[in-house]
Amino acid sequence: MSATPTNRPPAGLDSGATDAVLRMGRFFTKRGTVSGDLRTVTREGGRGADAFYRDRWSHDKVVRSTHGVNCTGSCSWKVYVKDGIITWEAQQTDYPSIGPDRPEYEPRGCPRGAAFSWYTYSPTRVRYPYVRGLLLEMYREAKARLGDPVLAWADIVTDPERAARYKAARGKGGLVRASWEEATEIVAAAHVHTIKTVGPDRIAGFSPIPAMSMASYGVGARFISLIGGSCLSFYDWYADLPPASPQVFGDQTDVPESADWWDAGYLVMWGSNVPVTRTPDAHFMTEARYRGQKVVTVSPDFADNTKFADEWVAIAPGTDAALAMAMGHVILREFFVEKDTPEFLEYVTAYSDLPFLVSLEQLDGAYRPGKFLTADELGDRSENAQFKTVVLDDAAGGEPVVPNGSMGFRYGEEGKGSWNLDLGDIRPRLSVVDGADASDAVEIVLPRFDSPDGAPSTLRRGVPVREVAGRLVTTVYDLLLAQYGVARPGLPGDWPASYEDAEGACTPEWSQAITGVPAAQCIRIAREFAENARETGGRSMILMGAGTNHWFHSDMIYRSFLALTTLTGCQGKNGGGWAHYVGQEKVRPQTGFAQMAFGLDWQRPPRQNISAAFFYLHTGQWRYDTYDAAAMTAATGSGRFAGKSNADLVAMSARLGWMPSYPSLSGNMLEHTDAAREQGRDVKEYLVSGLKDGSIRFAAEDPDGEGNYPQVLTVWRSNLLGSSSKGNEYFNEWLLGTDSSLRADEAPEGHRGQEMVWRDDAKKGKLDLLLTLDFRMTSTTLFSDVVLPAATWYEKYDLSSTDMHPFVHSFNPAISPPWETRTDYQAFHAVAKRFSELAVDHLGVRQDVVVAPLQHDTPDELAYPKGVVRDWKAGECEPIPGVTMPKLVPVERDYPAVYDKLTSIGPLAEKLGMPTKGVVFHPEPEIERLGHLNGLARGGAGNGRPSLARDRDMCEAILALSGTTNGRLATQGWRQVEERTGQRLADLSEGEEGKRITFADTQAAPQSVITSPEWSGSEHGGRRYSAFVVNVERLKPWHTLTGRQHFYLDHDWFTEMGESLPVFRPPLNMHLLFGEPELGSSGEGQVGRDGNPLPGLGLTVRYLTPHNKWSIHSEYQDNLLMLSLARGGQAIWMSAGDAAKIGVADNDWIEAVNRNGVIAARAIVSSRMPDGTVYMHHAQDRTVDVPLAEASGKRGGIHNSATRVLMKPSHLVGGYAQLSWAFNYYGPTGNQRDEVTVIRRRSQEVTY
Amino acid sequence: MRVMAQMAMVMNLDKCIGCHTCSVTCKQAWTNRSGTEYVWWNNVETRPGQGYPRTYEDQERWKGGWVVSPSGRLKLRAGGRVKKLLQIFANPVLPSLEDYYEPWTYDYDTLVKAPLQEHTPVARPYSLISGKPMNISWSANWDDNLGGAPELTKNDPVLRKIRDAAAESVQLEYKKTFMFYLPRICEHCLNPSCAASCPSGAIYKRAEDGIVLVDQDACRGWRQCITGCPYKKVYFNHRTGKAEKCTFCFPRIEVGIPTVCSETCVGRLRYIGLVLYDADKVLEAAANPDDTALYQAQRACFLDPHDPEVISAAQRDGIPFDWIEGAQRSPVWRLIHDYEVALPLHPEYRTMPMVWYIPPLSPIVDEVTKVAVDPESPESHDVLFAAIDTLRIPTAYLAELFTAGDVAVVEKVLKRLAAMRSYMRDINLGRDPRGEIAEAVGMREEDLYDMYRLLALAKYDERYVIPTGHAEDAHRLEELATDCAVSEHIGLDGRGTEGPFGADSGRGPVPVAIQTFAETKRRQQADEMGRPADRQGGLTQ
Q1: pLDDT band at B494 (very low <50, low <70, confident <90, very high)
Q2: Is there a contact between B273 and B331 (Cβ–Cβ < 8 Å)?
Q3: In sequence order, what are the beta bridge partners of A352?
Q4: DSSP-derived secondary structure for A991-1008
């Protein structure tokens, strides 16, 4: 098309009259030349007025730093400084290149990070130390009277009246300024008093996600660990830990870096809204599409990532496992049973437990799957034979054989060189029927939970069997086909006839009824996923996230996902497998970090606790469990949880050594030692006999008992009370002893457990001191007794790393900490110094005993062979520390020396080595070097040792003592693994043996890490990191029972739960469990604070709390820039249909009310939301624009005011193979997705 | 031929994740000042949606841009120069503060200062305009991510247009949901109607790179530019009484650094580079009576930097050699000219905008996939092509944004993007690439592959090709005005009396630097925080 049709008159502006004006103008104005068409005037000069913008752009320096905020971003930023003032920030673009044919990492960042500098000088900045006025007055009075800080503190907290008074004032204003000296003295006195009276394990510290600022985490954790307090876990508490990972892989979480998404040929984003929650990484997904990657999203709402997807799978919330099971059904049928797919068959035979034999057990005239068959049952008398699993070997005519690589080879002398996946001549038989030799078939009973209300039932399907060593056995593969309902000729039982069978689990049609996903879509995606994996050698990936991981049964959802990636041979392949991203858990320099943070260089073991159980007990939530643990079990179970409460199981897991539990025992641990010594007895024997005769009890059995609860809690780098406190109102009510909007009824008699001590007069306000270090005002600071003003991320030195990229990089101060703020490093040093001074008179040197659980990646994993539960308290065995109960480890506490130890590196790293995941690193030259780098401590306990006086000293130590940042250590570690596995590995890092990443390097630019046995993937040769590459390519076993990826789990409790194999379990039915209104109902019966029914029409909906676009957890949700781009305060998204039902318009004030609490927020009505579900985006604190709620008359709550902790028994299992505890590795999750709430439109007149 | 160089931008909407990092870094760098609290030089709109300020695309209402008169003359929609001259004291048509939004802050210091009281302290919202407590009901991004859909969305002027045009209505319901993001900055037009609207001649277009700026000394606060700009990308600083707008980060561009919004773009979707054009052709092109011809008409103004004739003319017209080279390497030129995937935003406004867009692909409606997928050949590129017709985002909607309603042009672009994906999938999976895919969209295989590299790998030095300014030649730098500059010509000056928004600027000239760095520094270092009512505003407070 021609731009200038010839039949037009010459173009002109306006009209002829204008032309005349303009021509006239040519005479009026001296400057400039008017163009021929009269359109433009060209002048010279006249540009002085742009000086303002030039001036604004100028700056004095640009400093590299980042944000420590658990977002997994770990982005490097440029912070601009002018005249000593931070002006703004922008992203660094200097990441090492990841290859000529790939997109680069630059410019990682997001709008939240870009808004951070607002905090520096904002009016929400905490500039001075603050103490609650009431408490400060009491303290000053008592100290003036008694003359001693510790006695003064004791005087207040032991007086019920005064203590209750200041505790009841928590969260109600009245903070007053104090000096650093006075504030830290109060804090130190509280610590000393608590240790002195009830013991060090009554002190806890909560700080999450070390990867987001390692030294800041490290200094506080080091202080807590040195004094014997317990560090609380976070990854499991946040429900970011996928328990399926340790269950299946024996690993906490190991996943591909985001650049590896690029390698995938097929990408399913399942419950992970990548543009919002992985903002800096999302481009790899959008760009990979251009390379021909097919993208599918699975999400209940039209999530942001759906924009990029070729297909949107709109799924009913929480039913993801049903879809994945049906996809598994399709894949097993089409790629395994109807046709052999050699690529898949070879993979699962070599790298999964599918060929391993499982014994069948009798149950009600039929069979159920039992335990893995092990070598001891074949008469094998070798070391750890109970941990050597068995296959049928086709090469040996179908005889049972014991291949290398199972856990029996991992520990002990005999296994050296044989812990590997090299099958040699063994050709494991996948199915018992595969051989020419005859096999039988029997019917087994399998669990199902797919009834509308989630009630358990059973189904019967046949498996082929053989008799081996007097036992009826079948393979995991045979069990899996039965579980997935994939029929084979000649097997008895009920099998779905076709994909269209809606009754038989797990067909696509069955899935459609549950998930709402069309069967045809399910079949199509399953086929495409598998076909792509086959064609590409495993480059199909599921990118999964909190949308699927925060459910009560998320481990079952994840196991159904992992079944897909393992069956199709995608794990351990670049571009394939699971890609789970929830939480920045990956501290790449793990070994050095652990040494520093937990003071392992001075004393071992540290106390590390599981937060979900800790808060479940100590915020009183266990008292509101109106259902018994048996409610979670399968119809195929044997009733072992009958009559037990969830709290009973928590106590049992502590008692059996499965899980940690602090406070551990009744009584002061220091005094137990004294008492034993006085009686001339060994303290371990003293404690065991006390436990046996009942004179000493586990504190978990009586959490409300005097002295059995935590009394000092320090929170730093976290907004616990405004963000992650699942059951926020329970926290307020029980832990803090202040106002709450808790509405739940306590469990009636009969539901209070068998072993738990129920106290009607249980104490509220258990904490004597809540201390918070922060730079902004949050719910946590508002409710704290002492608030210390913290430096921001632009005001200190630190280190950052993440899952998402393979770099470590640094924080650096753009300015010095302003006003009276201090770095966490300086603050803990100040507290420790005063603590050590007060300890001279009040504590001295004491003997402590750590009640330590059986630990992952150690021989403790052999404690409970076959996963058979033996309870010494029930008389089933003797209490033997480290075998049938926790280890009891005496530890000397030199309290006056705590400050010296905090500020210097102790001798144990060289003496005992530094263990990580079963590899022990030996750092003699590194310690020597650190002495030169950091200088030496002079005087005191650390005399002559490398100094840790400054934050950057600890950064230097972390880097020097980790394999990922020190090629010598990496290679040393690999050589150790070579010895155990007999496989070649050290070449993965040998080329970089001389490489040392120093702190100065990380200041210059982000540094790529070195391949190290601390992780399972390989960066060798510049390849992109993907998990388990080393396992697949180098035949190093996974850290599991069979040494392979597990479909099957044979622990007693998993069998009881019906979760031996992947199975669909629907979201919990809160109507049945807690009496909440049924979904869709009007919520009749809910009453307000006056006892009258709440006004207005209600609607009961699913209450989901996905991550927020305008904040990272609670950080930034109070940031004016973010609030200006969003709705300016708390908001709940709901569908247009639901809104219409209860008369709500966009931006109306609404309230969400359930038994756990009350929320008053604005409605965002949107057609992108499905009916029946609301989203209150995660971590909306109550600090900004939250009015008083109608339903409570009190300040509206946070997003977690409507949630609470729900204990899943199988998360409490320990002491058995990969089901063993490690910190943030395995344990109960603080899941919160299954909740429901009633939504009502409230009066639009709000008061504050 | 009069060769000029224009620094231009292309945004690939298909990669935009809607994160707003661009908005925040821009605001932090440029407009977190008193008087500009409500101002977002860069904003990101969820589409469908009303945009910012709301419904700005409704030119019937806001009177922005140019129209062609029946006699074929180009004139400002708000009225020609004579009319403007006569009406200079009248209220210009411009959005009210409510149409942008009333900026606010909170009494944050309550959180730390509240005395012992009955309830947990909370920070309440206060207006940054009035200093009084306020009820937040609109923002610069209120309908983000379909918030308020369909109630709010149905007022989207573009949606209204296609609804009116098509017999069937576009459904705004759950199963049919669609959305995408539209990041916007000043278009730095070749034919800027803002400049033409300015009675003071204060808006100029830099001769060397085409960046459009407001001369802060010359601006008299008439606000006619705000009416004149159909994109509503000139803003009124209500403290200084002057117009301000996106500067294309000229202090950075001059030294070869990309704009803040581009360098910080996490989606890596922005491209900056030069385009050479023939300044003598602009008026004729902009006056083309056929709206749907304007896209091609604007392209016809562009000059091929590889053409020897153009090169010599450019040298003749004083364009430095490295700038010509820059124009040859320009990703903007490649995307507009070589691959023909970038399109102008609202060409029918006739301002000849120079920030262009690659329209987004979008999820294929499930029903179509179900029918279309051939089990034997599930990856046939025909499937993707067939699906273009049934994308979630109606192509008519995209056409209203980028081609004045010409759906065929948008479909051609989308097919090229789809073809790139198909073609590359074979390579990705190690199969033989299929030339017929490139052919089907009228491209050569190597061009399809090079386009893939530019769009997918998008390396920093390929996204941004920015020759540095020639400071040694600074005296020659000129401003190019597209204006009527009536006040200057005839010696008019004047002051209104009413408030700044929707009525009158009123205040007369105030130095632009009133919100200086010194003031920011003083406030930010103040020990006491003060209540919002005491504050004069600014996001930093």
Answers
A1: very low
A2: yes
A3: A1045
A4: TTTT-B--HHHHHHS-EE
CA distances from A982 to A954, B295, B509 (A): 36, 68, 82
Residue B316 burial by Cβ neighbours in a 10 Å radius (0-12, 13-18, 19+): exposed
Q: Which residues of A touch B146 (CB under 8 A)?
A: 302, 1166-1168
Phi first, then psi, for residue A1103 (nearest 5°) are -115, 105
Mutate to test the interface with A, among B11, B113, B174 (most CBs of A within 10 A): B174
Half-sphere exposure of A927 (CA within 13 A, CB side): 19
What rounded mean pLDDT belongs to chain B? 85
pLDDT confidence of residue B313: 97
Query: How do strand A786-789 and strand A769-774 relate by DSSP bridges?
Result: parallel
A463 strand-pairing partners = A442
Alpha-carbon distance A1220 to A44, whole Å?
Answer: 77
3-state helix, strand and coil shares in percent for chain A, rounded to the nearest 5: 35, 20, 45
pTM exceeds 0.90 for this model: yes
Nearest C-alpha neighbor of A4 from the set B354, B2, B283: B283
The domain tally of chain B equals 1
For B:338-367, CB contacts with A below 8 A are 360, 362-364, 366
Does residue B422 belong to any structural domain of this protein? yes
Interchain contact, B82 vs A102, CB within 8 Å: no
Whether the pLDDT of residue A374 is over 80: the answer is yes
Q: DSSP string of A76-121?
A: -EEEEEETTEEEEEEE---PPP--TTS----S---HHHHTTHHHHT
Residue B379 lies in domain: 267-463
Place of tokens 């320009």: B330
Residue B377 domain flag: yes
Query: A544 in helix, strand or coil?
Result: strand
pLDDT tens column, A641-687:
999 999 999 999 999 999 999 999 999 999 999 999 999 999 999 99
Is residue A76 within 8 A of residue A107, CB to CB? The reply is no
ipTM given for this complex:
0.96
Cis upstream peptide for B48 (omega within 30°): yes
Q: Is A280 on the interface with B (CB under 8 A)?
A: yes
Structure token pair of residue B280 = 């003598």
pLDDT tens digits along A491-517:
999 999 999 999 999 999 999 999 999
B398 in a structural domain? yes
In whole angstroms, give the CA distance from residue A188 to residue A838: 7
Reading the block at residue B34, the tokens are 């008193």
Residue B21 to chain A, least CA–CA distance (Å): 4
First-to-last C-alpha distance (Å) of chain B: 52
CB A910 within 8 A of CB A922: yes
Compute the distance between CA of residue A240 and CA of residue A257 in angstroms, rounded to an integer: 17
Q: How far apart are CA A1146 and CA A1124, in angstroms?
A: 17
> Count of CB contacts below 8 A, A vs B?
479
The Cα–Cα gap between A1120 and A110 comes to 16
**Nearest alpha carbon to residue A65 among A1121, A1010, A955:** A955
- CATH number, domain containing residue B417: 3.30.70
How confident is the model over A845-869, as pLDDT tens digits?
Answer: 999 999 999 999 999 999 999 999 9
Going by pLDDT thresholds of 50, 70 and 90, the confidence category of residue B174 is confident
Torsions phi, psi of B290, nearest 5? -95, 115
Contact A405, A420 (CB under 8 A): yes
Q: Identify the CA nearest to A235 among candidates A248, A224, A227, A246.
A: A246
Mean confidence (pLDDT) of chain A: 95
B417 found inside a domain: yes
Pick from A245, A1053, A253, A232: which is nearest to A660 by CA? A232
